[in-house]
Design goal:
The protein has a six-stranded mixed beta sheet, with no helix packed on it. Strands 1-56-55-54 form a four-stranded antiparallel beta sheet. It contains seven helices and 67 strands. Strand 10 (about 165-170) and strand 11 (about 180-185) form a beta hairpin. The protein has about 900 residues and is mainly β. Among the domains are: about 455-775, Methylamine Dehydrogenase, Chain H; about 780-895, Immunoglobulin-like (Sandwich).
Length: about 900
């Protein structure tokens, strides 16, 4: 047996048997506490001092992101209404078959979606099960189940909060109050809230009708098309560890003691009781994830799509899996079984061959979905890396082309089997000819970015890596003004789907990218030349361990110096051509936690912008170290931090040499509390500055490059700002969905902050007025900032033009308490040309003036519309802000263009 898999198996068994008593003793946010905390967050959003400052979507507009499910209103030809579930992008609806889309789920606790279901008897009733059940590296926990009775316009939370992931929802065909839910459970910890649940009163009360154990959840569920009392459920015993995939692998002990929960179950009394239906399926210890479906045209025919861990063959010498890891025995993997007696017995219909072996790669647990053509019991679709169709019950398959890969959902019109809608890692697609050709729903902004960085070009570019797409770069164009930044198409960039980027500030064509377990390269975009610059261990040493998103940084003191983090820290002073290992292993290096996923690796690096060689390193197992002598010696400064939590960021202050910030993300420990720390003594002592952040694993913290008091923070519900270095936090919500913010950067020249979200693409935010909020201004009753002048192109000599020729002016003002406010614009003769609507709420306000005269046919929408209207002439104007009878005046120039 391969020692690699022996070690992985041992780690899995230890995880299963031992740590749960320990894990259960740790304090974590309960589901009820998460909901209460989220309500606090919503209150912060509604009362934010900055609720009027907008985020602007940057794109990409040419790609979409991972989708987990689709649901259609039937009959299709009457409404053309489709719902799409994003893996972490919320819920989207179209009523014109994809011409336009509406986002429906922007203000809920989570945008991670597991499944959608429409009540067959009332299409206004829509159910959403939150929490992606595929437990992939970028999956996020959900918060139970939601219900809409008005087609998604509003939502009510209906419980099942602690389930965290939901694999399937089935609604009774005639009674919309009767619903069954397949709950998969927590990703990283055993819990009793998993199995099959049933409600008979529309979700007000739930009964758990099928439960196996704390590690086995329900992953799939289907209902008999003619007898609504008959249901089939697939259960899956699964557990993900920080260092192991959730695949069972054969229990080499020869015992069925482990991994016995996966199987197929049947109920004939509406789910009140269940019996196993596994005759002919693999032995329990070999059953991984199972997908099931029923043939509508022949309901006694059931199919099971099993991730089968029986050994099919021995691995060839040097054979590796999809991630380059050595393989032991090669499992059967994707296997199709058919029953023609309602699940009483099963026969295997698929053969083990190269096609089936590659169908799910080496991570079949991510897929597992299958569908039976509703009009042909022999025609089936199975989903893996590709969407595959068989017309002989699974004996032979062909892969459908024309789509992105990694498939998770499929709808087949029961009245027209040629009409298909597919969800995959690239988004959603529709076919009208049985899958021969596909139309991409490219308008769905569900892109899952892992990170973002910028270059110093003009206009500047942002770079980021996208789940299952690769790396991309896009331009942040300020030519139309800071408030009119357009969403744009992004171009491919160096690196892969798990890459960090750094761009040489002297030459924007030189791009470094690192990730994918420690690989790093240097690319010249002008010439296309790429050089691999990976640090290699000395001959005879163990391989280095690198995270999926291996971290590296460019020194703020010298662009030729690169630091790279694996389990050691490496330094190159010649752009990566040569490397020096400058640290010992900075993790716990616990052999019991070395599994089939690289773990105990460095996930955050930061060099002080003030002092060269003052370097911090944080790891995924909760350790943080500092060196003050360029790596000659290292000190563990983890004391006082939360033990065993993923270090998501370490930030050395650019204003105070001894100040450092650390954020920790507890998602991989089933912990959703925010952890944010500040030290003013190089990490000797730590102070929590998370007070005021209600909840949500924290992913990133940044200092403002111009205002030393400003901090920005991104977590799993949005972005926060502090005006006093973390003592108090405020939400920055306007225009940004409640979504997973994985990274933030602030461009030091252009004062634009960019957020990389994992589910909704990138967003831009103008921080210039925040930067001007000094302590003195914050303490004053009111303050008006210098207005941002407008631009005007006149079409004739009389000052009449379409508003598409105008670039609006913006007026910003601050109030530290509620007040009576008026805002007007006067020309150079003192005549009032417009009175603008102004809020008297406390906070920082932005008011748009579309350069129209008072009395114009204003529609409140500003520039960008081609109607005719009266515009002012270029010239000098005065903005007058009156606050409780006190007056503030500022000049404003309208410039011709």
């Amino acid at each position: 047996m391969c020692k690699f898999y022996q070690r992985a198996l041992t780690a899995v068994i230890l995880l299963v048997v031992a740590p749960y008593s320990i894990i259960a003793q740790e304090s974590r946010m309960s589901a009820a506490e998460r909901f209460s905390a989220y309500q606090t967050h919503r209150s912060m959003v509604e009362g934010s001092l900055f609720k009027n400052l907008p985020w602007q979507h940057l794109g990409p507009t040419n790609i979409s992101g991972r989708s987990t499910d689709i649901a259609l209103v039937e009959p299709r030809g009457e409404t053309y209404t489709i719902y799409v579930a994003g893996a972490s992008g919320g819920v989207w609806k179209t009523e014109n078959e994809g011409v336009t889309w509406t986002s429906l789920f922007d203000e809920q606790l989570t945008t991670s979606i597991g499944d959608l279901a429409i009540a067959p008897s009332d299409s206004d009733i829509v159910w959403v099960g939150t929490g992606e059940a595929n437990i992939f590296r970028s999956s996020h926990a959900g918060a139970g189940i939601y219900k809409s009775t008005d087609g998604g316009n509003s939502w009510q939370h209906m419980g099942l909060t602690e389930t965290q992931t939901i694999g399937r929802i089935v609604v009774h065909p005639e009674n919309p109050d009767v619903v069954w839910v397949a709950a998969s459970g927590h990703e990283y910890r055993g819990n009793p809230e998993r199995g099959v649940y049933k409600t008979v009163d529309g979700g007000h009360n739930w009964n758990k009708v099928l439960f196996i154990d704390d590690m086995t959840g329900a992953i799939d569920l289907v209902i008999h098309p003619l007898d609504s009392n008959t249901l089939y459920a697939a259960t899956w015993q699964r557990q993900r560890a920080k260092f192991n995939d959730p695949r069972n692998e054969p229990a080499f002990t020869g015992s069925d003691e482990y991994f016995t929960g996966s199987g197929v179950w049947k109920s004939t009394d509406g789910g009140e009781s269940w019996r196993q239906m596994n005759n002919g399926l693999p032995s329990p210890k070999y059953r991984g994830r199972i997908g099931i479906d029923i043939a509508r045209s022949q309901p006694e025919t059931i199919y099971a799509f099993v991730d089968n861990y029986e050994i099919a063959r021995e691995a060839e010498e040097g054979e590796a899996d999809a991630y380059g890891r050595p393989r032991g025995g090669v499992i059967r993997g994707a296997t199709v079984f058919r029953s023609d007696n309602g699940g009483g017995s099963w026969r295997r219909t698929s053969e083990h061959n190269q096609f089936m072996e590659g169908l799910g790669g080496t991570y079949g647990w991510v897929f597992g979905q299958m569908r039976v053509d509703p009009n042909n019991p022999d025609k089936i679709y199975v989903m893996g890396l590709g969407l595959n169709v068989s017309e002989d019950s699974g004996r032979t398959f062909r892969r459908l082309s024309g789509m992105h890969g990694d498939h998770h959902g499929l709808y087949i019109d029961p009245n027209n089997s040629d009409y298909l809608v597919n969800s995959n890692d690239g988004g959603a697609y529709v076919s009208y000819d049985g899958g021969e050709n596909w139309r991409f729903f490219g308008e769905l902004p569900m892109v899952q970015f892992f990170n973002v960085n910028f270059d110093m070009g003009d206009p500047f570019r942002v770079y980021g890596s996208v789940q299952d797409h690769g790396s991309y770069t896009g331009v942040v164009n300020l030519n139309n003004g800071r408030h009119e930044i357009p969403a744009v198409e992004f171009d491919g960039a160096p690196g892969g789907e798990g890459s960090h980027h750094a761009i040489d500030p002297r030459d924007t064509d030189i791009v470094y990218s690192a990730g994918f377990y420690g690989t790093i390269s240097r690319t010249n975009r002008a010439t296309g030349e790429t050089k691999q610059i990976v640090p290699r261990p000395p001959e005879g040493d163990l391989p280095y361990r690198g995270q999926w998103l291996a971290h590296f940084i460019m020194s703020p003191h010298d662009p030729n110096t690169i630091y790279h983090g694996m389990n050691h820290v490496f330094r190159s002073t010649n752009q990566g051509d040569d490397w020096e290992r400058i640290s010992p292993d900075l993790t716990h290096n616990d052999p019991d936690r070395l599994g089939d996923i690289p773990f105990q690796t460095i996930t955050a690096l930061s060099e002080s912008p003030i002092t060269e060689g003052l370097l911090y390193a944080g790891s995924d197992d909760g350790r943080v170290h500092v060196t003050r002598d360029g790596g000659e010696s290292w000190t563990d400064i983890s004391g006082g931090l939360r033990p065993d939590r993923f270090t998501s960021e370490v930030l050395a202050s650019e204003y105070h040499e001894s100040t450092v910030y650390v954020t920790q993300n507890g998602r991989r420990s089933d912990d959703f509390a925010p952890y944010v720390w500040r030290s003013t003594d190089y990490g000797d002592t730590w102070e929590s500055i998370a007070d005021g952040i209600p909840f949500g694993p924290v992913n990133i913290i940044r200092e403002d490059p111009k205002n030393p008091n400003l901090l920005y923070l991104g977590n799993d519900v949005g972005v926060y700002v502090s005006l006093d270095r973390g003592n108090r936090w405020h939400a920055l919500p306007y225009g940004l969905p409640s979504t997973f913010v994985h990274d933030l950067v602030i461009h030091p020249r252009d004062d634009i902050m960019v957020a990389a979200t994992h589910g909704r693409g990138m967003f831009a935010f103008d921080v210039r007025q925040l930067q001007q909020l000094t302590t003195k201004i914050v303490a004053t009753t009111s303050h008006m900032f210098e207005p941002e002048g407008g631009l005007l192109a006149l079409g004739n000599g009389r000052g009449r033009a379409s508003t598409s020729a105008a670039q609006s002016a913006y007026i910003h003002y601050w109030l530290n308490e509620e007040a009576e406010v008026s805002l007007e614009v006067q020309d150079n003769r003192g005549q009032v040309v417009n009175i603008l609507e102004a809020s008297g709420d406390p906070g920082l306000h932005a008011v748009e003036w579309t350069l129209e005269r008072m009395g114009s046919d204003q529609d409140g929408r500003g520039a960008g519309f081609s109607r005719r209207t009266d515009l002012v002439q270029p010239g000098e104007y005065t903005v007058i802000l009156k606050v409780n009878n006190a007056e503030n005046r500022m000049p404003l120039r309208i410039t011709p263009r």
